[in-house]
Amino acid sequence: MSIPPDLQEHIEEAKESILVPDEEIMASDFLGLSDDAIREILETLQNEDAEKLDILLDDLTTSDKAELLEKVTLENRQALMLGFSQHFNADVIAILQEEIRSSVLEKMPAEQVAKIISDLDSDDALDIVGSLDEEFQQEIMRKLSAKIRMALQEGLNFPEDSAGRLMQREFVAIPQFWTVGKTIDYLRAAKDTLPDDFYDLIVIDPGHHVVGEIPLNKLVRAQRSVKIDDLTLDEVHPIPATMDQEEVATLFRNENLASAPVVDEDGRLIGIITYDDVIFVIDEEAEEDLLKLGGVKEDDLYRNIVTTATSRSRWLLINLFTAFLAASVISLFDATIEKIVALAILMPIVAGMGGNAGTQAMTVAVRAIATNEISGANAWRVIGKETAVGVLNGMVFAILIGIIAGFWFHDAGIGTVIAAAMIINLIVAGFFGSSIPVVLNRLNIDPAVASSVFLTTMTDVIGFFAFLGLASIFLL
User: Mapping DSSP to helix (H, G, I), strand (E, B) and coil, where does residue 210 land?
Assistant: First the structure.
């Protein structure tokens, strides 16, 4: 079949317009706001060109606007919020970092904050209200409708970081005696009151107890005459409102859930948790554990200098005491160090290698505990593996450092001593790096917070003791 020349020309033009766009689209365009874009917005703000700034802000996505507010100074943030508040709606406020969000909202009148909260889903609204000062919180509550106020007050009664705080109260629940046809008719008729996004229908009995769940795809494939009871999934995953959010995230991960109902102490349906909330929890908990390993609190980047310095000083004070403990071990061998100055030069190598190796094992163990991959059934196997890794790495680096130290100081004895000390300390690092988090977790102590203090103490003390002790025995 031949194609007319003019039609062939149009086809080629269409191909070029699809395959070669006017502006190259980069992956980075979807990964956040560029520094150039932020500079342009701030320059336009300084030049008081409101018309151009309106155009620039209109082109930003919700996440871009939140990123903009987080990266600019307090003065520029206030100028943007006061002069161009129409661009920073409730959805933008909801995804701001908590420290930034609180500082933004506390500068607003309670009535304006109440309007923002009223425009959000119940879970986002509760997250915002719960982070505010109690006095300001009560002032906002008085500006809300009775329905929203009651829902928020109920949510605030649940423990922090629990399923009750995480859930949203917008869900779709249907009686078990309905048919597919009646359910679909109901969903169409109630479209204005349904949640914006939902993935499962919760099936309830007359007492509002959860008896099953139906994925939407299963509903739309069924015939209208089929009873809901016949479609209900056998596996139901009701989540107690008091369950910790980390346990909720583990349940979603293990069962591959899109959503799950939340029930009160009597088993009645009171809310629902969706996968997007769980993704936030996983990200939040991972970030929190990572920061705790360094003795840093969440949102530390956005806190003022005095608050940040104060929160970090407690961690540094603990480390100071452990440093004195390591120093006291060194003092036991001061005579040895005086006679063999090379030991003072090589000591940091033994301690540093042990600390780094221990941190690797500790990080693996803390993550495994957070994701419930370590239990009594496999704890010793994990500890054994990390200890074996310490043995292998110890032997490899012992040979390397032994040869280097021997040639450096022209003394094979020093090379042998530091090699032996390296093997001992890397074995210690592997064993304690993996076992300390497990033991702390069994004692209901957060391993992400306390592990590094104990680990540093063990690797420093044993490393120095092994190195200097062996030197005292074999070199003097």
Answer: strand
